[in-house]
Amino acid sequence: MTRPHAGPAAARRRASAGLYLPQVRMDFATIERRVRVAEEAGFHSAWFIDHLAPPADRGLDILDAWTVATAVAMRTERLRVGHLVLAAEFRHPALLAKMAASLDVLSGGRLELGLGWGSVARELTDYGLTDPGPRKRAGRLAETIDVLRRLWTGEPVDFDGDHWTLRDAICRPRPVAGRVPIHIGGAGPRLTMPLVAELADWWNCPSGAADRLAELRPRAGAARISVQHPIGLAASSSVRDEVVATAHRRFGAWGGVIAGTPDEVAEALSREREAGAELFVCQFHDFGTPETIRLFAEQVLPAIA
Q1: Which residue, of 24, 137, 162, 218, has the greatest Cβ tally within 10 A?
Q2: What digits encode the pLDDT tens for the residues 7-62?
Q3: Could you state, in order of their start, the residue ranges of all structural domains in the chain?
Q4: Whole-model pTM?
């Protein structure tokens, strides 16, 4: 079951911003404060991560992905919530369909469902989950998305796939709009981009592939485009060099760092806007302090919107 084709061309839509807020080294009071500021500033969405432990340091605390998204949705009114990305291998598709429909209903239709086939293989095996390998994981994700969309019809579902089997399965209540937008993240040409073209409402281009956005865009089919970036946003030229250095020190290994004054950041993002990007998911150099969120909303977003 493929997704409907996207609507009007990106050039006719306003660009928007998402706040990427990995829930590591950050208590919930801080998360809540920052998402409230983002909502007030006009951000489109807030995004979290999905891991059983932080991949870089398992000794750190990390709040559960779904619990955080639910709590944030209950403490905001307009901001959309999602993950970049949920590990599809963590949840049976029937359970995921129920969780997604429930949160969508509770939030008034504000869920964005980001999914991936799971890039941290060790996390699966260390926690007692199976790792059938990348190709089978990608195949399981394709079937998962098919199952989700069938279950969201609210009608009984029989499904016989290579990976999942359902008999007379029903998921109610249905999502508010009858379905939840599905985002697929990644840029792999063999496994990920074919899934994007066939099944995704949105393609989330990771920062490391952002320099190839125009090249990869045709492989995304009719999916709308978001781009994820680490962003160093300097409030003035006097602190520019310090902010740029901080952004590269913290996130340089990711690739795709954009840093500088608001004018410089807007100029860089405008090039991606012209290539079709509609949503810019920002991981800020200071992890999204209120001052930086407001600065981006006031001086960068209008220039690319």
Answers
A1: 137
A2: 445 555 789 999 999 999 999 999 999 999 999 999 999 999 999 999 889 999 99
A3: 10-304
A4: 0.94
Give the pLDDT of residue 242: 97
Angstrom distance (rounded) from CA 7 to CA 67 = 32
User: Taking all residues of the chain, what is their mean pLDDT, rounded to a whole number?
Assistant: 94
> CB neighbours (10 Å) of residue 48?
27
Written as one letter, the residue type at 43 is F
Tokens of 109: 């239709």
pLDDT in tens, 138-174: 999 999 999 999 999 999 999 999 999 999 999 999 9
- Give the number of other Cβ atoms within 10 Å of residue 129's Cβ: 14
